[in-house]
Amino acid sequence: MSQPKRFQDRKSDELPAELVELGELLNSVDSERKDDLMLAYKRVSDSVLRRRRILGLVQEALSQLRLDVKYLMFDLEMTRRERDELQSRIEGEGF
């Protein structure tokens, strides 16, 4: 069962404007090193996208963890209340 994302993808598959601009500049350069520069640019852009996806996954995991902790705290509080109620019943009956 899939839950809706708490954090919406903010163009997670798009590069930052500065990186896009750098790519356009590199693409317009006439140089014998252009292929090397474009290869390096491709590695950097892939890394940026991968890190953005990882950050999204971490944010979702943290959100789920927070929710799970809230449920556990609720369960703990209810268990304590039930325990206290049963103890007071036992003490009231004089066991």
Any descriptors?
95 residues, mainly alpha, 76% helix, rod-shaped
SSE layout and pairing:
Layout: H1 17-28, H2 34-93
Determine the structural class based on helices, strands and strand pairing: mainly alpha
Share of β-strand residues:
under 5%
Q: What is the alpha-carbon Rg in Å?
A: 27 Å
Number of helices: 2
Based on Cα principal axes, name the global outline: rod-shaped
- The amount of helix comes to over 70%
Average pLDDT number: 88
Distance between the amino and carboxyl termini: 48 Å
| Count of spatially separate domains | 1
Write up this protein:
The chain has one domain. Helices cover 76% and strands 0% of the residues. It has helices spanning 17-28, 34-93.
In short:
Helices cover 76% and strands 0% of the residues. With 95 residues, it is mainly alpha-helical.
